[in-house]
């Protein structure tokens, strides 16, 4: 660590500047001459699509990467940050998108062990007193003696931020801090962060893609595209449309395909279905759920409220205690022959884990639905050439980027695995399509394409059940919206008259 | 018969058996708890137990001191643990496969070096007669408590305290629960796991010394009869909690004493079925706590069997 200048930094929020930050990986320029200034006590938002260079920029700032060119300035002094430890010592901290808390430890244990001077023997009485004193100076608090695994997502995110303050950090980088929170939780957490900024305790740089949060909480915004800084300004002077235009550049997002036709007869109906949840302690209880032909039913909800279990019920991965699932009036057990005759298709979340055999090739994975069918009957010997030909044409049609058809599917990027599975599931006759988080972690272009394919399937007369943690996605795609909370369907509304605030309240279980 | 206490002999014999038989279970399971809490599983403790029994016995024969035997057993156990830990720190190595290899390696090595020590007699570890207040010889025999049993209790309590209130304990739990979080804190998971495995191995070695130096108190090739493996099952039963390990070890020990106890009161038919009680209990426990639908509570997050 080199600090030029003798005096220590002033107390409170730090001013942080990057000057001409450039990062090249071989011939690829991930970050090109980016200069941003986060004033002391300001809340700065960093917008950009996946792959725009946001992570690269903050990793350079935190010392995970060493920038090819450019400087870091702290309180208008040049500093060199060799590794994250240097950054921590200078008071820079980062809250990651995924929690870095240890799930089985209590909040207090997490805080104490994250300190670098934890004593060999911990005097819990004294530590508790010190923690209580620290907490009472904070604008928000979390229960300290509960294992972190039992805290709600919002509480965990608050604890992550508290941990940074506990460690004495004065400049925080927040990496999509609200991606796992309800709108209400997000507002609460960001409101507190904003309060800390206004009090002059911290300065914040927040990576996000939610315009609403930018306008509501940030002072300033910088927009990155393909590694370049393409826009910057006070938040007050920019509209959502302007920010979106900066983010995606000239090639604007495709509008979702126009909807056609009216819903037909009921295809999927779930009645009185009960099952145990993952922990075995709570129950999933779906009283009634119907999806008709030619409609998309969207299920909104915070993760962990039973969507995953509902998906598993429908795919046959989780046994029912009571009730039944019917497809076109027939009891459905999700066996392979039933799925085949009733034309039921799935796109589960994390398709690499739930819908693929990772080490088998792309061609083989695409053939999972059809490898043993031969016209009408079963086949014994595989038709290798047929499988390859079909996979080849689907890979082309769905724009799956793969080195070859024989590449193990696990080697593909997330978006391409998604496309490959979608290619398999959407081929042939589809009467019921069950989808979970289809666009999680994909870039803008891939998202637009996958969504348009889903709408196309609906227009072709398929019944679509869509579960998603992304509320925008549910709003954009659905004809009818359900909200799932604590294993039950808590709310239902037609999409045309849906109100974001009401849905948010039901998601949080506050209704 | 001067002291005919009838059927009371059975619970007393089971109590005595529980105390006598449980010690190796206790030490091996505490070693395994330490290892598994750090995020690795060491199935090789069966081999470590057998080798510890042999090394302890041989040292006691040569030096004439049972305690020297215990120390050598602990050292050899920690070497086995260290080897397991170092191999598992290499990329793409599966800890369960290495554990099975270490189990065969440990027993094989013990049989090879142990041949000359089957005949000679080694000094026993001392026991404390906690039953001095009673006139019943059966009760006195049952309450003849070995020092290692008491050390095991202290160890269990000490480990419970360590996991709760020391930096080392918290660090082991962090590493065992989330490698990513540990890395973010600047910890080195592989190093910590290796040290935990080595220490756990030392515990298992001491358990072995108990077998050959106190009960049954001689060295032969069938001395462990799978107790090291059962102790691994016991850890799951005890939910990775050292104090629960103590209770579970007593339960398994008592089950092991059921057969001999029935035999001692004159049950002549079918008692040998009860010799299988610990094995049946192991199966029963594993079936009872298994579930296809729910994740195991209390399991360290990084454990390869629960991931």
Number of domains of chain A: 2
Q: How widely separated are the two ends of chain A?
A: 52 Å
**Gyration radius of chain B, to the nearest Å?**
20 Å
For the biggest sheet of chain A, the summary is: 6 strands, mixed
Question: How many distinct helices of chain A?
Answer: 17
Q: Beta fraction of the residues of chain B?
A: under 5%
Compile the SSE list and pairings.
The complex is a heterodimer of chains A (511) and B (307).
Chain A: E1 2-3, E2 16-25, E3 28-38, E4 43-47, H1 54-62, E5 69-74, E6 77-80, H2 84-90, E7 92-95, H3 107-114, H4 124-136, H5 153-166, E8 171-175, H6 183-198, E9 203-208, H7 211-217, E10 220-225, E11 228-234, H8 240-248, E12 266-276, E13 283-292, E14 296-300, H9 307-315, E15 322-327, E16 330-331, H10 336-342, E17 344-347, H11 351-354, H12 362-366, E18 373-374, E19 377-378, H13 384-397, H14 414-426, E20 432-436, H15 444-459, E21 463-468, H16 471-477, E22 480-485, E23 488-494, H17 500-507
Parallel strand pairs in A: 4-9, 4-10, 7-8, 8-9, 14-21, 14-22, 17-20, 20-21
Antiparallel strand pairs in A: 1-6, 2-3, 2-5, 5-6, 10-11, 12-13, 12-15, 15-16, 18-19, 22-23
Chain B: H1 9-37, H2 45-63, H3 66-88, H4 95-114, E1 127-129, H5 137-142, E2 144-146, H6 147-165, H7 167-177, H8 179-184, H9 189-213, H10 227-237, H11 242-264, H12 271-275, H13 277-289
Antiparallel strand pairs in B: 1-2
Helix pairs in contact in B: 1-6, 1-9, 1-10, 1-11, 2-3, 2-4, 2-9, 2-10, 3-4, 3-9, 6-7, 6-11, 7-9, 10-11, 10-13, 11-13
